[in-house]
Amino acid sequence: MANNPAGKVWFIGAGPGAADLITVRGAKAISEADIVVWARSLVSEEILGYASPDAEVVESTDIPLEGTAAVYRRAAREGLTVARIHSGDPAIFGAIMEQIERCEDLELDWEVVPGVSSFSAAAAAIGRELTIPEVSQSIILTRRASRTPMPRGQEIERFAAHGTTMAIFLSAARPRELQEELLSGGYPPHTPCAVVYRATWPDQKISRCRLEGLGDAIREMGVNRQAMILIGPGLDAYGRRSRLYDPEFSHMFRRGSSESIRDITEGIEAR
Ligand SMILES: C[S@@+](CC[C@H](N)C(=O)[O-])C[C@H]1O[C@@H](n2cnc3c(N)ncnc32)[C@H](O)[C@@H]1O
Predict the structure, then answer these.
(1) Which residue puts its alpha carbon closest to atom 7 of ligand 1?
(2) What region does 153 belong to: left with phi over 0, alpha with psi -120 to 50, or beta?
(3) Cα of 169 to ligand 1 centre, how many Å?
(4) pLDDT, mean of residues 115-134
(5) What domains sit in the chain, N to C, each tagged with a CATH number?
(6) Distance from residue 163's CA to the centre of ligand 1 (Å)
(7) What is the 57 CA–ligand 1 centroid distance (Å)?
(8) pTM of the model
Protein backbone atom coordinates (compact mmCIF):
# COMPACT_ATOMS: atom_id res chain seq x y z
CA MET A 1 0.00 0.00 0.00
CA ALA A 2 1.43 3.41 -0.91
CA ASN A 3 2.80 5.46 2.00
CA ASN A 4 2.13 2.57 4.32
CA PRO A 5 5.22 2.10 6.50
CA ALA A 6 6.40 -1.47 6.89
CA GLY A 7 5.07 -3.25 9.94
CA LYS A 8 7.29 -4.73 12.61
CA VAL A 9 7.07 -7.14 15.54
CA TRP A 10 9.13 -6.52 18.67
CA PHE A 11 9.63 -9.58 20.89
CA ILE A 12 10.19 -7.96 24.25
CA GLY A 13 11.47 -9.54 27.44
CA ALA A 14 9.41 -7.99 30.23
CA GLY A 15 11.61 -9.40 32.99
CA PRO A 16 10.56 -11.72 35.81
CA GLY A 17 7.59 -9.78 37.17
CA ALA A 18 8.25 -6.36 38.72
CA ALA A 19 7.30 -3.80 36.08
CA ASP A 20 10.44 -1.72 36.68
CA LEU A 21 12.67 -4.64 35.69
CA ILE A 22 11.88 -4.25 32.00
CA THR A 23 14.69 -2.63 29.97
CA VAL A 24 14.45 1.00 28.81
CA ARG A 25 14.50 -0.30 25.22
CA GLY A 26 11.66 -2.72 25.93
CA ALA A 27 9.49 -0.05 27.56
CA LYS A 28 10.13 2.32 24.62
CA ALA A 29 9.16 -0.34 22.09
CA ILE A 30 5.91 -0.98 23.99
CA SER A 31 5.15 2.74 24.15
CA GLU A 32 5.47 3.01 20.35
CA ALA A 33 3.41 -0.08 19.46
CA ASP A 34 0.02 -0.04 17.70
CA ILE A 35 -0.80 -3.48 19.11
CA VAL A 36 0.44 -4.96 22.40
CA VAL A 37 0.19 -8.74 22.82
CA TRP A 38 0.69 -10.00 26.38
CA ALA A 39 -0.19 -13.03 28.51
CA ARG A 40 -1.89 -12.18 31.79
CA SER A 41 -0.74 -15.48 33.30
CA LEU A 42 2.96 -14.65 32.87
CA VAL A 43 3.39 -10.87 32.69
CA SER A 44 2.30 -8.20 35.18
CA GLU A 45 -0.57 -6.00 34.04
CA GLU A 46 1.52 -3.01 35.19
CA ILE A 47 3.66 -3.50 32.07
CA LEU A 48 0.68 -2.27 30.05
CA GLY A 49 1.26 1.09 31.74
CA TYR A 50 4.07 1.62 29.21
CA ALA A 51 1.64 1.25 26.27
CA SER A 52 0.05 4.18 24.44
CA PRO A 53 -3.60 4.77 25.45
CA ASP A 54 -4.43 4.31 21.75
CA ALA A 55 -2.77 0.91 21.50
CA GLU A 56 -4.89 -2.16 20.92
CA VAL A 57 -4.24 -4.71 23.66
CA VAL A 58 -4.51 -8.43 22.88
CA GLU A 59 -4.50 -10.86 25.84
CA SER A 60 -2.86 -14.00 24.54
CA THR A 61 -3.26 -16.55 27.35
CA ASP A 62 -5.93 -18.51 25.48
CA ILE A 63 -4.74 -17.78 21.95
CA PRO A 64 -2.75 -20.46 20.11
CA LEU A 65 0.13 -19.59 17.80
CA GLU A 66 -2.31 -19.35 14.88
CA GLY A 67 -4.13 -16.47 16.62
CA THR A 68 -0.93 -14.53 17.22
CA ALA A 69 0.06 -15.22 13.61
CA ALA A 70 -3.22 -13.60 12.53
CA VAL A 71 -2.17 -10.44 14.43
CA TYR A 72 1.16 -10.52 12.58
CA ARG A 73 -0.63 -10.92 9.23
CA ARG A 74 -2.61 -7.78 10.01
CA ALA A 75 0.57 -5.95 11.00
CA ALA A 76 2.17 -6.90 7.67
CA ARG A 77 -0.91 -5.86 5.71
CA GLU A 78 -1.57 -2.56 7.50
CA GLY A 79 2.00 -1.57 8.39
CA LEU A 80 1.44 -1.82 12.16
CA THR A 81 3.96 -2.18 14.95
CA VAL A 82 3.36 -5.03 17.38
CA ALA A 83 4.93 -5.39 20.84
CA ARG A 84 4.81 -9.07 21.78
CA ILE A 85 5.66 -9.22 25.46
CA HIS A 86 7.34 -12.29 26.92
CA SER A 87 8.20 -13.09 30.52
CA GLY A 88 11.84 -12.97 31.59
CA ASP A 89 14.17 -13.22 28.63
CA PRO A 90 12.51 -14.30 25.37
CA ALA A 91 15.55 -16.41 24.46
CA ILE A 92 14.89 -18.87 27.30
CA PHE A 93 11.83 -21.13 26.97
CA GLY A 94 10.18 -18.19 25.23
CA ALA A 95 8.75 -20.00 22.19
CA ILE A 96 9.78 -17.09 19.97
CA MET A 97 11.32 -19.09 17.13
CA GLU A 98 7.96 -20.33 15.87
CA GLN A 99 6.73 -16.71 15.88
CA ILE A 100 9.85 -15.44 14.13
CA GLU A 101 9.30 -18.06 11.43
CA ARG A 102 5.76 -16.69 10.90
CA CYS A 103 7.18 -13.16 10.58
CA GLU A 104 9.78 -14.37 8.06
CA ASP A 105 7.05 -16.09 6.03
CA LEU A 106 5.19 -12.76 5.95
CA GLU A 107 8.38 -10.80 5.16
CA LEU A 108 7.54 -8.83 8.29
CA ASP A 109 10.42 -7.12 10.09
CA TRP A 110 11.08 -8.28 13.67
CA GLU A 111 13.52 -7.65 16.51
CA VAL A 112 14.16 -9.17 19.95
CA VAL A 113 14.69 -7.06 23.09
CA PRO A 114 16.34 -9.14 25.82
CA GLY A 115 14.98 -9.21 29.34
CA VAL A 116 16.01 -10.08 32.88
CA SER A 117 15.49 -13.82 33.18
CA SER A 118 13.84 -15.40 36.20
CA PHE A 119 17.05 -17.28 37.01
CA SER A 120 18.86 -13.94 37.48
CA ALA A 121 15.95 -12.60 39.51
CA ALA A 122 15.97 -15.71 41.71
CA ALA A 123 19.73 -15.35 42.32
CA ALA A 124 19.16 -11.71 43.28
CA ALA A 125 16.29 -12.67 45.58
CA ILE A 126 18.53 -15.02 47.55
CA GLY A 127 21.48 -12.64 47.30
CA ARG A 128 23.87 -15.11 45.69
CA GLU A 129 26.32 -15.06 42.79
CA LEU A 130 25.88 -18.24 40.74
CA THR A 131 29.52 -18.47 39.66
CA ILE A 132 31.97 -18.97 42.52
CA PRO A 133 35.74 -19.27 41.86
CA GLU A 134 36.98 -22.84 42.10
CA VAL A 135 33.48 -24.12 42.94
CA SER A 136 31.08 -23.36 40.08
CA GLN A 137 32.19 -21.71 36.87
CA SER A 138 29.26 -22.81 34.74
CA ILE A 139 25.50 -22.41 34.99
CA ILE A 140 23.22 -24.98 33.42
CA LEU A 141 19.79 -23.64 32.48
CA THR A 142 17.44 -26.57 32.08
CA ARG A 143 14.12 -28.20 32.93
CA ARG A 144 12.69 -31.64 33.66
CA ALA A 145 11.09 -33.60 30.90
CA SER A 146 7.31 -33.29 30.87
CA ARG A 147 4.96 -33.19 27.93
CA THR A 148 7.98 -31.60 26.25
CA PRO A 149 10.49 -34.48 26.18
CA MET A 150 14.19 -33.87 26.77
CA PRO A 151 16.46 -34.51 23.81
CA ARG A 152 18.71 -37.54 24.37
CA GLY A 153 21.71 -36.73 26.52
CA GLN A 154 20.07 -33.68 28.08
CA GLU A 155 18.28 -35.51 30.89
CA ILE A 156 18.53 -33.73 34.23
CA GLU A 157 20.55 -36.63 35.74
CA ARG A 158 23.23 -36.12 33.09
CA PHE A 159 23.57 -32.46 33.96
CA ALA A 160 23.58 -33.22 37.69
CA ALA A 161 26.76 -35.19 37.09
CA HIS A 162 28.58 -31.89 36.43
CA GLY A 163 28.05 -30.78 40.02
CA THR A 164 27.97 -27.13 39.02
CA THR A 165 25.17 -24.57 39.50
CA MET A 166 21.91 -25.47 37.84
CA ALA A 167 18.88 -23.23 37.33
CA ILE A 168 15.84 -25.43 36.75
CA PHE A 169 12.80 -23.96 35.02
CA LEU A 170 9.29 -25.39 34.64
CA SER A 171 9.92 -28.26 37.06
CA ALA A 172 8.12 -27.69 40.39
CA ALA A 173 5.15 -29.92 39.62
CA ARG A 174 6.77 -33.25 40.59
CA PRO A 175 9.31 -32.19 43.20
CA ARG A 176 10.07 -35.62 44.67
CA GLU A 177 10.87 -37.02 41.24
CA LEU A 178 13.06 -34.00 40.58
CA GLN A 179 14.91 -34.60 43.86
CA GLU A 180 15.46 -38.28 42.95
CA GLU A 181 16.81 -37.40 39.51
CA LEU A 182 19.22 -34.81 40.92
CA LEU A 183 20.45 -37.29 43.53
CA SER A 184 20.83 -40.16 41.09
CA GLY A 185 22.71 -37.82 38.75
CA GLY A 186 25.38 -37.28 41.37
CA TYR A 187 24.69 -34.20 43.49
CA PRO A 188 25.40 -35.14 47.13
CA PRO A 189 22.30 -35.07 49.42
CA HIS A 190 23.59 -32.00 51.33
CA THR A 191 23.92 -29.86 48.17
CA PRO A 192 22.32 -26.47 48.85
CA CYS A 193 19.15 -25.56 46.94
CA ALA A 194 16.90 -22.52 46.74
CA VAL A 195 13.36 -22.38 45.45
CA VAL A 196 12.09 -18.95 44.47
CA TYR A 197 8.41 -18.68 43.64
CA ARG A 198 7.35 -15.63 41.57
CA ALA A 199 10.64 -13.79 42.02
CA THR A 200 10.11 -9.99 42.20
CA TRP A 201 6.29 -10.27 42.36
CA PRO A 202 4.59 -8.99 45.54
CA ASP A 203 3.79 -12.58 46.58
CA GLN A 204 7.37 -13.86 46.07
CA LYS A 205 8.28 -16.80 48.32
CA ILE A 206 11.72 -18.24 49.01
CA SER A 207 12.72 -21.56 50.51
CA ARG A 208 16.29 -22.71 51.11
CA CYS A 209 17.06 -26.34 51.79
CA ARG A 210 19.43 -29.23 51.09
CA LEU A 211 18.81 -31.51 48.14
CA GLU A 212 17.66 -34.33 50.44
CA GLY A 213 14.77 -32.06 51.52
CA LEU A 214 13.99 -30.40 48.19
CA GLY A 215 10.81 -32.34 47.45
CA ASP A 216 9.36 -31.61 50.90
CA ALA A 217 10.42 -27.94 50.72
CA ILE A 218 8.58 -27.43 47.42
CA ARG A 219 5.51 -29.28 48.71
CA GLU A 220 5.50 -27.14 51.88
CA MET A 221 5.66 -23.97 49.79
CA GLY A 222 2.55 -25.19 48.01
CA VAL A 223 3.81 -24.19 44.57
CA ASN A 224 3.80 -26.12 41.35
CA ARG A 225 4.49 -23.43 38.76
CA GLN A 226 6.34 -20.10 38.37
CA ALA A 227 9.12 -21.43 40.58
CA MET A 228 12.84 -21.28 39.90
CA ILE A 229 14.91 -24.03 41.48
CA LEU A 230 18.58 -23.26 41.97
CA ILE A 231 21.02 -25.95 43.06
CA GLY A 232 24.78 -26.29 43.42
CA PRO A 233 27.62 -26.16 45.92
CA GLY A 234 28.23 -22.49 45.05
CA LEU A 235 24.98 -21.52 46.78
CA ASP A 236 26.63 -21.72 50.18
CA ALA A 237 30.33 -21.37 49.37
CA TYR A 238 32.06 -18.62 51.32
CA GLY A 239 35.60 -17.33 51.58
CA ARG A 240 36.54 -17.55 47.88
CA ARG A 241 37.83 -14.52 46.07
CA SER A 242 37.98 -13.86 42.37
CA ARG A 243 41.16 -13.13 40.41
CA LEU A 244 39.36 -10.16 38.85
CA TYR A 245 39.90 -7.93 41.88
CA ASP A 246 43.12 -9.53 43.07
CA PRO A 247 45.65 -6.64 43.44
CA GLU A 248 48.41 -8.69 41.82
CA PHE A 249 46.32 -9.85 38.85
CA SER A 250 46.68 -7.90 35.58
CA HIS A 251 43.99 -7.71 32.94
CA MET A 252 43.11 -5.50 30.01
CA PHE A 253 41.83 -2.64 32.15
CA ARG A 254 44.09 -2.84 35.19
CA ARG A 255 47.79 -3.47 35.62
CA GLY A 256 48.62 -5.72 38.56
CA SER A 257 50.14 -3.69 41.34
CA SER A 258 52.88 -4.50 43.78
CA GLU A 259 51.72 -1.61 45.96
CA SER A 260 50.77 -2.85 49.38
CA ILE A 261 47.07 -3.39 50.08
CA ARG A 262 47.42 -0.76 52.78
CA ASP A 263 48.71 1.87 50.27
CA ILE A 264 45.86 1.04 47.87
CA THR A 265 43.09 1.22 50.46
CA GLU A 266 44.48 4.31 52.20
CA GLY A 267 44.73 6.08 48.83
CA ILE A 268 41.09 5.28 48.03
CA GLU A 269 39.80 6.19 51.49
CA ALA A 270 41.63 9.54 51.35
CA ARG A 271 39.90 10.60 48.09
C1 LIG B 1 7.94 -20.61 29.98
S2 LIG B 1 9.25 -20.39 31.10
C3 LIG B 1 9.71 -18.74 30.71
C4 LIG B 1 11.06 -18.35 31.24
C5 LIG B 1 11.40 -16.92 30.96
N6 LIG B 1 11.61 -16.70 29.56
C7 LIG B 1 12.62 -16.45 31.75
O8 LIG B 1 13.64 -16.07 31.14
O9 LIG B 1 12.55 -16.41 32.97
C10 LIG B 1 8.38 -20.25 32.62
C11 LIG B 1 9.22 -20.73 33.79
O12 LIG B 1 10.16 -19.74 34.12
C13 LIG B 1 10.31 -19.66 35.52
N14 LIG B 1 9.84 -18.33 35.96
C15 LIG B 1 9.33 -17.35 35.20
N16 LIG B 1 9.10 -16.25 35.94
C17 LIG B 1 9.47 -16.56 37.20
C18 LIG B 1 9.52 -15.83 38.41
N19 LIG B 1 9.13 -14.55 38.49
N20 LIG B 1 9.98 -16.46 39.52
C21 LIG B 1 10.41 -17.74 39.46
N22 LIG B 1 10.40 -18.47 38.34
C23 LIG B 1 9.95 -17.89 37.22
C24 LIG B 1 9.49 -20.78 36.13
O25 LIG B 1 10.32 -21.92 36.22
C26 LIG B 1 8.42 -20.96 35.07
O27 LIG B 1 7.89 -22.28 35.15
Answers:
(1) 88
(2) left
(3) 6
(4) 97
(5) 8-116 (3.40.1010.10), 119-236 (3.30.950.10)
(6) 23
(7) 23
(8) 0.90
